[in-house]
Amino acid sequence: MEPMEPEGIMLSKASQTEEDNYHMISPTRRRRRRRRRRRRRRRRRRKRRRRRRRRRRRRRRRRRKKEKKKKEEGEEGGEEGEEGEGGGGGGGREEEEEEEEEEEEEEEEEEEEERRRKKKKEEEEEEEEEEEEEEEEERRRRKKKEEKEEKEEKKKKEEEEEEEEEERRRRRRRRRRRRRRRRKKKKKKEKKDKKKKKKKKKKKKKKKEGRRRRRRRRRRRRRRRTRTRTRTRRRRRRRRRMLLTRQWTGNKSRRAFLGQCEETFRCPE
């Protein structure tokens, strides 16, 4: 049975979580992450380039050596008849080769030293950049905090001003109401006083009267009294009837409180 191939690219659990939580990371941290990745890529590229250069140099050196060797061998073949020079020439060649190797080693050491210096410099620059970023982040945080505090203070101030304004409005309303009441009261009193004044009549001077006049006056008074009483009673009855009717027709809660119409009052309807 063949193993099943996963559909699409399968991410590792860590990378999946990273992808999910990417939107939750702060922008500064994202920037830092991007910069680190860029630096890593640059380093890798540089390393690759260095390796390639070294390989090329080594190949060149080997090629040169081989070419030199071939040349020397050819020269040796051409100068077979000459004596005494062969031994001395061999020793000279060995010395030259040793010198070349030493030079190459020195060059490699210098290159290595140069690389180390560059690396150190890059690391220092990276550290400085990171420090600058952290300082920038700190400044931004502080600024944000200050802005927030200013905003809150402003809001608080505005709320206090609004409350004060509301209080002033309330006081004005109260004053107006008081003035209105006072004016109303005053008007009412003035009206009452006017009415009273109107009612008051000038007393007539009493005449000396006899028995007949006195009787007549008494009779009149009695009649008037009776008439007034009757009128008052009628008025009261009418008013009571009207109130009961209103209670029966309009005010249901009052009707419920008083009880049923037939039991308590005579229903006007």
Automatic annotation (TrEMBL):
Stretches for region Disordered: 1-242
Biased composition (Basic and acidic residues): 146-158
Superkingdom, natural source: Eukaryota
Biased composition (Acidic residues): 74-85, 94-113, 123-137
Record field: transmembrane: none
Biased amino acid composition, Basic residues: 28-69, 169-242
Protein name (record): (raccoon dog) hypothetical protein
Originating organism: Nyctereutes procyonoides (Raccoon dog)
